Amino acid sequence: MKVYITKKRTLIIVLLLVLITAVSSVTVAIIPTFSKKRVLPIYSVEREDKKIAISFDCAWGNTYTDELLSIMHDKGVKCTFFTVKFWTDKYPDYVKKIFEHGHELGTHSSTHPKMSTLSKEKIIEELSLSKKAIEDIIGTTVKVFRPPFGDYNDLLINTAEELNLKTIQWSVDSLDWKDLSANQIYDRVVNRVKAGDIVLFHNNGLNTSKALPAIIDTLIINGYEFVTVSELIYFDNYYIDNTGRQYCR
């Protein structure tokens, strides 16, 4: 009788251990499934047409801006310039000239920090001051924002959204800031562009203005149409997949 009871108790203990192990395994498997999804900026846009957006980041100089504006005027192309507040403050006449040429202006922050390291209060300050500096010159609302260094986190994107700013990345990087040759810039862009892409350039890239005419001509021949970022993206009724591509619902 005692042997029977011992065996019964042993069996119960074994069954409990198996049950605990099974529950633990299920819990471990479930946790990743329900983990918080990271908030993403807009890298590109799913579109049935062949619209794309050229964008320029403006922070560290102004040597080639007139050339870029002249090229785009000659080609009939509109684009988006993202300006840092200290650039806006230093070159207000160029901010106005960009706007008068029919291009869009977005903010690129106030002081060009790594914004994922900032508190919400500092993020609001960076965005609000830079946004207002542009709006005071052009007299219209700034709708888009590009984080310096492409650096972001959930707090930044959610705070920008609260300020009615869409956070914009890019899907094609010209790497013009590395002083690549005009041919290298051309190859990087035309061999990568797809419908709905956002292309990153810099207004003070050494060879950007040399590469741009051929890039535009080739993409036009291939059926692409150039629009501003705000004309490319959706502001309502959309979702963004895990690659940062925006879709209309």
Compact summary:
With 249 residues, this protein is an alpha/beta fold. The chain is built from 9 helices and 11 strands.
Please tell me about this protein's structure.
The protein has 249 residues and is α/β, with parallel strands linked by helices. The chain is built from 9 helices and 11 strands. The chain folds into 2 domains: 1-35; 44-248, TIM Barrel, CATH 3.20.20.370. The chain has helices at 2-33, 65-75, 85-90, 92-100, 120-138, 154-162, 182-190, 208-221, 229-232, and strands spanning 44-45, 51-58, 80-83, 104-107, 144-145, 166-167, 172-173, 198-202, 225-227, 238-240, 245-248. The strands form 3 sheets. Strands 2, 3, 4, 7, 8 and 9 form a 6-stranded parallel beta sheet that branches. It has a 3-stranded mixed beta sheet with strand order 1-11-10, with no helix packed on it. The longest helix has 32 residues, at 2-33. The protein is globular.
Give the structural class: alpha/beta
Which fold name corresponds to the CATH topology of the largest domain? TIM Barrel
How many domains make up the 3D coordinates?
2
Per CATH, the superfamily of the largest domain is Glycoside hydrolase/deacetylase
Give the CA-CA distance, first to last residue.
70 Å
Text of the CATH class of the largest domain: Alpha Beta
* General form: globular
The pLDDT mean sits at: 90
Radius of gyration: 25 Å
CATH architecture name of the largest domain: Alpha-Beta Barrel
The number of distinct β-strands equals 11
Quote the beta fraction.
15-25%
* Main beta-sheet annotation: 6 strands, parallel
* Helix proportion: 40-55%
Number of helices: 9
